[in-house]
Amino acid sequence: MIHYRQVITETYEPYPYYSRKSFYGKCKIINTEGGYSYLQSYDTIVAYRKNGVVYRTWGDWSATTGRHLQVFGIMGKKEWEKLPVVSLPIDSPFSR
């Protein structure tokens, strides 16, 4: 079976909710043609969103990534840890 990769349509750095001016390139949101939004914290895809539902792809937590997750709708460590860790979609541009 052939799986075609999602095509990236937009990449941008979101604006922080707190007093900092910027994430200084350490946080990116990557949108694809298939309606997926991926959250990249540093060099790691930590979550993705499809149809308003957030999926966790990274099994850890850090304070900095927690600040990045706020722009993706995750408001704290407890909420993050309730989400199960899942694999990236097979057609993700980041899947191997």
Question: Can you describe this structure?
Answer:
With 96 residues, the protein is α+β, with helices and mostly antiparallel strands. The chain has one domain. 15% of the residues lie in helices and 29% in strands. It contains 2 helices and 5 strands. Strands 1-2-3-4-5 form a 5-stranded antiparallel sheet, covered by helices on one side. Strand 3 and strand 4 form a beta hairpin. The two termini are 16 Å apart.
Draw up the topology in text:
Blueprint: E1 8-12, E2 27-32, E3 36-41, E4 44-50, E5 53-56, H1 63-70, H2 77-82
Antiparallel strand pairs: 1-2, 2-3, 3-4, 4-5
State the gist of this model.
This protein has 96 residues and is of the alpha+beta class. It is 15% helix and 29% strand. It has one domain.
